[in-house]
Amino acid sequence: MIPDDPTSPAPRADDGIVTAGFLVIGDEILSGRTKDKNIGFLADALTAVGIDLTEVRIVPDDTDRIVEALNALRARWTHVFTSGGIGPTHDDITSDAIAAAFGVGIDHDPRAVAILTARLAGRAEINEARLRMARIPFGADLIVPANGMPGFTLGNVHVMAGVPSVFQAMVEQVVPTLGGGRPMLSRSIDAKVGEGTIATPLGAIQKAHPATVIGSYPYERDGRYATNLVVRSRSQEALDAAHAAIEAMLADIHSHMPAR
Amino acid sequence: MIPDDPTSPAPRADDGIVTAGFLVIGDEILSGRTKDKNIGFLADALTAVGIDLTEVRIVPDDTDRIVEALNALRARWTHVFTSGGIGPTHDDITSDAIAAAFGVGIDHDPRAVAILTARLAGRAEINEARLRMARIPFGADLIVPANGMPGFTLGNVHVMAGVPSVFQAMVEQVVPTLGGGRPMLSRSIDAKVGEGTIATPLGAIQKAHPATVIGSYPYERDGRYATNLVVRSRSQEALDAAHAAIEAMLADIHSHMPAR
Q1: Which residues are in the MoaB/Mog domain (chains A, B) (predicted)?
Q2: Tens place of pLDDT for every residue, chain B, 260 residues?
């Protein structure tokens, strides 16, 4: 839901669940030239404060594609993060695309110009291209990392750099201020058997513990199949109950296995 | 455009450009527990054969979300790849979601059952859970990697494992059969100056060479800003002309810089 004032923050969901989408902007990720490092970093940071990352999209440096994806994501999730496309060159079109998506104007922002001027003093001239980095949509709040030029928050959208070190500094600054939901708790179990051996009893345990989500992640080591099981829940009680049921199931399976 | 027969391959675009979308299915990527390795691998493999990866989406293990994203992607791009959710456990719902998206039935596939039986012989019993991996939508062709259970191709959708080693084997098997487009050519230039110094002349070069896409990727090394410039084009002539213009621009800038 987009509120009437397009730049006002999204409402907090009544059920205590806070969601987020992430829009990665960059031809270089889609071509394979650059390998993304920001998705995993943001996922970890959000999980740590109890915000559910519920969708990621990667689109090229194309205004129409950015506007379309951004509007889909900001209408659906509590928060949206973007990465990439806020530098000084011709292919940096994110800020203008965000303004277009919100239907607001954009111009050189005095706060951003002041930061840019201070940061560049004695290092580089303030030319037209560098001033492009101070173009901020009307109504936005700046995100000012110690190690880069400003990003901004407009409504429920947080616009960040693509360079991982700057992206990470911005995430560490913004995410703790958002107000997380009831945190998702998790417990992991390393099962020394393949998925196919435990899938049927595991499915029964999932059915019997509907307040949990049980994930099953197969891996192979030294030629033997094994499985990482991860139980997640917002209820500690439900989490512990499902965890105990899985431990009991695995003990039962091991007691019936032939000695190696 | 979805063809009338929902399982027939997508038509090749007239302009010689072949596109692809990638749907990553997995709670574990969104929670940060697992860091994705498949996006970069697929991007490299597609770029190598002249197919443009134009969109990536990551969604949770949720049937409605998978169906919605898959239908959006397969209607828009020449090919769609999926990764994840084709194992034997209760959280592996991709094959059923694909069948639902196409509106076709799904059942144990005799070809897949035969492969499963042969692979598991002497290693593990064929139980109901393992047989789930042989559930294949009607009308699909199998993708059979040497190191895992089958995936499948249905219409323009290629359904693959999430485990990177199996995903990679499937990509190496499928992508070379697809018929690439006119390949995207590229040349890189390592500019020893920051983006802000070259942004204005670089923008002019981009305007003068519309058959190319010039990307600018800043980095910092030993406390100095520098920029990787990447020129891409489907025309060798246009590529070389833009590359020469950038080299001349950089030589001009360096001739005006003070000695270090």
Answers
A1: 21-181
A2: 344 455 554 544 557 789 999 999 999 999 999 999 999 999 999 998 999 999 999 999 999 999 999 999 999 999 999 999 999 999 999 999 999 999 999 999 999 999 999 988 887 788 888 999 999 999 999 999 988 899 999 999 999 999 999 999 999 999 999 987 778 899 999 998 989 899 999 999 999 999 999 999 988 777 788 899 999 998 999 999 999 999 999 999 988 876 54
Do residues B143 and B219 share a domain?
Answer: no
What one-character-per-residue DSSP string does B70-124 give? HHHHHHHSSEEEEES--SSSTT--HHHHHHHHHT--EEE-HHHHHHHHHHHTTTS
Which of B30, B57, B128 shows the shortest C-beta gap to A200?
Answer: B128
ipTM of the complex in this document: 0.88
Q: Residue B68 maps to which CATH number?
A: 3.40.980.10
Q: Do A54 and A126 fall within a single domain?
A: yes
Q: How many domains does chain B have?
A: 2
| Whether residue B234 sits in one domain with residue B138 | no
Residue of chain B with shortest Cα separation from A130 = B196
In a domain, A212, yes or no: yes
Please give the Cα distance from A179 to A156 (Å, whole number).
13
Structural domain of residue A220, as residue ranges? Answer: 185-255
